[in-house]
Amino acid sequence: MAYEPGVPTLAGVSEERRLTTGQSPPPPPLRAPLAIRVEEVRKSFARYPALNDVSLDVRPGELLALLGPSGSGKTTLLRLIAGLDFPEAGAIRFDGVDVTFAAAAQRGVGFVFQQYALFRHMTVAQNISFGLDVRKRLLRPTPAVRKARVEELLKLVELDGLGGRRPAQLSGGQRQRVALARALAVEPRVLLLDEPFGALDATVRKSLRRELRRIHAATGVTTLFVTHDQDEALELADRVAVLNKGRIEQVGTPSEVYVAPASAFVAGFVGEANRFEGAVADGLFRSGSIRLPAAGIEGRAVAFVRPHTVRLAPEPGAAGSLAATLGRQVANGPLTRCEARLADGRDVEFVLSHATAEGLPPAGNAIWLTFDHGHVFAVP
Amino acid sequence: MATATADRGRPWRRRSAVPGLGLTLGVTVSILSLVVLIPLAAVAARGLSLSPESFARVAFSQRAVHAYLLSLGTALIAAVINALLGVLTAWVLVRNRFPGRRLLDSLVDLPFALPTAVAGISLATLYGPNGWLGAPLARAGITFANNAGGIIIALTFIGLPFVVRTVEPVLRDLAADVEEASASLGATRLQTLIRVVAPSLAPAWITGFALAFARGVGEYGSVIFIAGNMPYRSEITPLLITIELEQFDYAAASAIALVMLGLSFALLLIVNTGQAWMRRSTEA
Amino acid sequence: MTAVPSRTRARTDTDPLWLRVLALTLVIGFLGVMILLPLATVFVQGLSRGLAPAWAAIREHDALAALQLTLLIAAISVPFNAVFGVCASWAVAKHDFPGKSLLVSLIDLPFSVSPVVAGLIYVLVFGLQGWFGPWLQAHNISIIFAVPGIVLATIFVTFPFVARELIPLMEAQGTDEEEAAVSMGASGLMTFLRVTAPNIRWGLAYGVLLCNARAMGEFGAVSVVSGHIRGRTDTMPLHVEILYNEYDFVGAFAVAGLLCLMALGTLALKALLEIARPELDSHGV
Predict the structure, then answer these.
(1) Which residues of A touch C184 (CB under 8 A)?
(2) Residues of chain B falling short of pLDDT 50
């Protein structure tokens, strides 16, 4: 594990370009990004299973989000990849090499902990340089090189000049940046982040998200992060793996996961949706007076209708439209969120453009809604 | 490092990312076995090498039974005194600010730090016929020579810090807002103490009581100077063991020691079971 | 109606003054009789004939030998138990394995064994009639009624001190920092020395302090295995006993006074550590 000097700098990497093209980052990385393959991995804790035969392919250089509710196994999967836990069955390969039971130290991973896990008795600079300091003498960079590396990384995470502080003297966001710099110092082949923004307040989260995106673009290192926040996953990741109860429900780009959810769980967990229970017969989902197209399913089913796909009927009583009583309206920037109660008593949420919402009658009046698109899944 | 290879030889051995379990657990279990477990097994081996009849004759002789009862009884009384005054001490130290509080707080630990023999001769002198407390008490007709009273005093001294030190942190962490909530719901101060404070303190309180009791049953150094050591009257069990040892009757000493160990473990078992039960009932 | 909440509040904040004064008086009386008076007795008795005889009793040959032996015993048994305590708490607090709670109970076991029994068990193993007695005698090795026996008995009675202090501390600190170090390539030893050790040093110091106080003051266990050879196998507490039984009260209380000063020093250090610890061993950065 020889030290390769120089971290790719930010110069020349356009964040805009990166965001708009959605391509893998421009070339700077010093070694080829790592591909990770997780094969049929199983892991259980005490009595309940944490992961059930999970398989996942992580592409070289991508930024992948592991998204799921608490207890879904996402952190466990991350820790198995890091070598902080070990599976009961299955294998984990880095570029084809089996590392399932390799020690964390041998894997070349950078791990960022939810609670930062900074060494509280060391300064920021000592924290960052720790991974270099503990190398065997022959592989250890000279003190000058280590110092330069720390300076570079401090600059990368925008903490220039704070190297002499102790973790206790930093804000939460600054600590998280130190944790990130510390993980990057060893030039990891894969960067793993466990709920990296979980403990931070909303504003700091937003700015750190952009930061992570920028750093990922600059380093090009394969990156996985765990989150329970769908906004974070959809906004930040190249691809999202949605986990539930120890299984992967779907892997896809943010728009695939949102537009074409693969399961009822994904439809309900990612993005907002109105949920209706009913049954499918002859390719048509029925629930009260609601009708939605549903191919390839029979019997009990559940449908998810996104608030932005609900439309106002062109005229009262139009064919296929549903009568409802308008409830609260909340203007939210360019959009207006509305609530309505269907004739059979069920509540519906929908979103209209501000302009369309201007034309709505006052609350309590009758309106007509059409549901022209929904995600329908069979109920097992 | 690009060729990080799997530890395929014995994958089941790797349970944790933090290294050193094998080494430290090995060292721990080895030392524990050599220093504690194997020597303790020697007592069992020697004690049980006696035939049941002679075991019963030695371990349950009249003199031995008197010693057990005396040890248990005095330790129990001392532990009760400490349980009551210890919880009061903890409360005073935690809930009040007064000059000298830190000093008083430190002095509570003196019985932990002071060699028991020093405590023994000091208490024997203090409560002796010419002592500062012994002389006036003797005039009032109370003596501590050759009876259980002196033993209880010594065991109270030895056990004093246990209850204070186990209850104190719980009392400190017991947020005032719980008591305020109770009061805001209309409870009187006494109701708050009985229904809110006492149940929170109980596990720590019982732990402290049990520790003081266990320590008292086995205590030797502080007791022998004040007790007078009269067989059937003020002879505690540990002293009886040393007497058997001085006569080189190792089997008898082991038999008595075995009974004592059995009593201590039974006590610990009762306390642990009780605590587990209480923890379940408070969590449910 | 509006007065009620404020009155309720006042009552929870402070109990009635008479109750507080009564409680404080009771506690000061209790601690005064149980702790201050015995402490004062030692010094008053020790100095009852003035400073010179007390000083002479401490300077006397056997007393100095006892002091040396006590320091030697502590110098062996305390580091031994410190190493054991660190090993045990690393295994218990940083890992999961079957039988963990049994192991913790077994580590605590010596606390519930009478010191006299602690001495007895080594007599049964190494004494003349013990398991290894004949073999040891044939090879001219003495353990019982000699220094090794005293060391063993002292180790037994002070066995859990360091582990008991460190296990809860290390459990509360969790394994995040160690995992972070390991994931950056640090070896186990490196992780312990550079990450764990700085986090537990004050807790370790605290455990060592308590362990040392008990090691230097142990009486019952040492009394059984020592053989009471003056100037050779008498520790300070045993020397106090001998002087006292010989009715040399000034000598006994002079040496006892020295032990008292050590105990007070221990308490002072302990108080200092308690002030320092919350900042230095705190967790959750």
Answers:
(1) 105, 110, 130-131, 134, 182-183, 185-186
(2) 1-12, 284
Asked if B15's CB is within 8 angstroms of A108's CB, the reply is: no
Q: pLDDT category, C119, cuts 50, 70, 90?
A: very high
> C83, B30 in Cβ contact below 8 A?
no
Q: Which residues of B touch A102 (CB under 8 A)?
A: 4-7
| Contacts B–C by Cβ distance under 8 A | 289
- Rounded CA separation A290/A286 (Å): 6
Q: What is the pLDDT of residue A251?
A: 96
E strand or H helix that includes residue A334: none
Share of chain A above pLDDT 90, in %: 55
Residue by residue, DSSP assigns chain C as: -THHHHHHHHHHHS--HHHHHHHHHHHHHHHIIIIIHHHHHHHHHHTTT-HHHHHHHHHSHHHHHHHHHHHHHHHHHHHHHHHHHHHHHHHHHH---TTHHHHHHHHHGGGGS-HHHHHHHHHHHHSTTSSSHHHHHHTT---TTSHHHHHHHHHHHTTTHHHHHHHHHHHHH-SHHHHHHHHTT--HHHHIIIIIHHHHHHHHHHHHHHHHHHHHH--HHHHHHH---TTTT--HHHHHHHHHHTT-HHHHHHHHHHHHHHHHHHHHHHHHHHHHHHHHS----
The pLDDT-based confidence of C278 (bands split at 50, 70, 90) is low
Any chains having at least 3 CB pairs less than 8 A from chain C are A, B
In sequence order, the β-bridge partners of residue C75 are none
Token reading at A116: 């930062």
Using CB atoms and an 8 Å cut-off, which of residues 255-274 of chain C contact chain B?
A: 256, 259-260, 263-264, 266-268, 270-271
Which tokens hold the place of C84?
């054991």
Q: Using the structure block, give the residue that is written with the tokens 């009990």.
A: A300
A232-272 per-position pLDDT tens digit: 999 999 999 999 999 999 999 999 999 999 999 999 999 88
ipTM: 0.88
Question: Which 8-state DSSP code applies to residue A307?
Answer: G
User: Residue A18: its pLDDT value, please?
Assistant: 37
Which DSSP letter does residue A138 get?
Answer: G
CB–CB of A201/A170 below 8 Å? Answer: no
Q: Which of C30, C33, C116, C157 to mutate to test the interface with B (most CBs of B within 10 A)?
A: C116
B5 in contact with A, Cβ within 8 Å: yes
Which pTM value belongs to this model? Answer: 0.83
What residue of C is the nearest CA neighbor of A128?
A: C184
Q: Which residues of chain B have a CB within 8 Å of the CB of C263?
A: 110, 113-115, 118
Mean pLDDT, all residues of chain A? 86
pLDDT at A21: 39
Is there a contact between C244 and B225 if contact means CB atoms under 8 Å apart? yes
- Closest residue in A to C184 (Cα) is A131
**pLDDT value at position B6?**
39
Q: Where do we find the tokens 């929904």? A: A374
Selection from C209, C79, C68, C32 nearest residue C147 by Cα: C68
* Range in A105-109, A112-116, C5-9, C31-35 the model is least confident about: C5-9
For chain A, what is the radius of gyration of the CA atoms? 25
Model pLDDT for residues C264-276, shown as the tens digit of each residue? 999 999 988 888 7
Paired tokens of C158: 């002070």
Which residues from B are below 8 Å from A86, CB to CB? Answer: 11, 14-15
Per residue in A278-295, pLDDT tens?
Answer: 999 888 899 888 889 888
Whether C179 sits inside 8 A of A130 (CB atoms) is no
**What residues in A contact C96, CB-CB < 8 Å?**
none
3-state secondary structure of A7: coil
Residue for token digits 């830190």? B102
A101 touches A86 (CB < 8 A)? yes
In angstroms, the separation between the Cα of residue C200 and the nearest Cα of chain B is 17
